[in-house]
Amino acid sequence: MAESKTILIAEDSSVILNLTKKILELQNYTVVSAKNGGEVLKKVQDQKIDAILMDLNIPVKNGMECTKEIRANENPQISQIPIIAVTGNANNYTLEQFKEAGINAYLPKPLDFDMLVQTVKEYVH
């Protein structure tokens, strides 16, 4: 059996986090979580992450700032991690801003779990 891929969920709502985690674990992903931008940056340094589901409205450093920092990392294993933005108010950002920050894909809230699984599979092989 293939080794399980690790998805980091950056989300400060425990309800959304727990639901998303369950959905991804059913797909045989290993899930780690971060409640704020500081934790996100620490986790990508500490372990191999295959993709990040990044809520854009997390405390400490928001998802856009985190994404930019990850993209600027010297280690390609970190700077190349697929980042999927998750946000309830994407209207605050343009697709152009997502691209500039280095976001690979974007999912609106409330999350469509079929779309979530499909998007993660697209970026995590």
TrEMBL record:
This is Histidine kinase. One of its GO terms (biological process) is phosphorelay signal transduction system. It comes from the Bacteria. Keywords: Kinase, Phosphoprotein, Transferase, Two-component regulatory system. The keyword Phosphoprotein applies. The keyword Ribonucleoprotein does not apply. The modification 4-aspartylphosphate is found at D55. Residues 6-124 form the Response regulatory domain. Transmembrane segments: none annotated. GO terms for molecular function: kinase activity. InterPro entries: CheY-like_superfamily, Sig_transdc_resp-reg_receiver.
